[in-house]
């Protein structure tokens, strides 16, 4: 029953929704009266004194069990989280994985981007920067005023050339 109709239950005036609900309630009550069913018991009555004593003895023992279940559950979940994080971190670092190859390629492109920035400023340290894979020095080619720095073995990334020059400061990948 809605809040408005609850104030007028004695008068019998209801809104459409509450009127339909009231009619349904009345119909169910009339049908139940025709069947002469006993009223349903809402509470549990214990008539045997032995059973009553058993139910009262339980007391606070259930609280300890509930607390134990919660502690064990939290422990299991914590263990799973730690184990899952450890395995995912190990998978990311694995050297032969495709993710490792992509990360290495992008870190190499970042190095060549830094080399381009150093070439723009005229810093001679640009020739000494190199990628972590392979452990070889970059190829430096000089033509008059142009300096071109290339990766020593771009084949490991599936490319034919990775380079940057003083004319084109962005890394070129072919």
The run of helices and strands is HHHHHEEEE
Low-confidence stretches: none
Quaternary structure state of the chains depicted = single chain
The termini sit apart by 76 Å
Q: Give the strand content.
A: 5-15%
Radius of gyration: 40 Å
Class of secondary structure makeup: alpha+beta
Mean pLDDT: 80
Helix content bin? 40-55%
Strands ordered across the widest β-sheet: 1-2-3-4
Query: Largest sheet at a glance?
Result: 4 strands, antiparallel
Shape: elongated
Number of strands: 4
Helical segment count: 5
Blueprint (SSEs and pairs):
Layout: H1 3-6, H2 16-35, H3 49-57, H4 61-93, H5 98-121, E1 139-143, E2 146-150, E3 162-165, E4 172-173
Describe the protein in words.
By secondary structure, this protein is α+β, with helices and mostly antiparallel strands. The protein contains five helices and four strands; from the N terminus they run αααααββββ. The chain has a four-stranded antiparallel beta sheet with strand order 1-2-3-4, with helices on one face. The mean pLDDT is 80. β1 (139-143) and β2 (146-150) form a beta hairpin.
Record keyword descriptors for this entry.
four-stranded antiparallel sheet; elongated; 174 residues; 5 helices; alpha+beta
What's the short story on this structure?
With 174 residues, this protein is of the alpha+beta class. The chain is built from five helices and four strands; from the N terminus they run αααααββββ.
């Amino acid at each position: 029953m809605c809040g408005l109709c609850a104030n007028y239950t004695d008068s019998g005036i209801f809104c459409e929704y509450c009127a339909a609900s009231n009619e349904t309630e009345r119909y169910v009550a009339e049908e139940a009266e025709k069947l002469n069913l006993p009223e349903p018991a809402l509470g549990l009555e214990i008539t045997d004194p032995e059973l009553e004593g058993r139910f009262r003895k339980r007391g606070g023992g259930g609280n300890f069990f509930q607390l134990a279940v919660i502690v064990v559950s939290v422990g299991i979940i914590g263990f799973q989280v730690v184990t899952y994080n450890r395995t995912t971190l190990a998978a990311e670092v694995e050297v032969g994985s495709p993710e490792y190859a992509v990360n290495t390629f992008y870190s190499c492109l970042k190095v060549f981007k830094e080399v381009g920035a150093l070439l723009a400023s005229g810093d001679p340290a640009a020739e000494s920067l190199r990628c972590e894979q392979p452990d070889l020095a970059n190829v430096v080619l000089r033509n008059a005023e142009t300096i071109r720095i290339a990766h020593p073995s771009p084949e490991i990334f599936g490319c034919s050339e990775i380079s940057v020059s003083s004319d084109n400061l962005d890394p070129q990948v072919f």
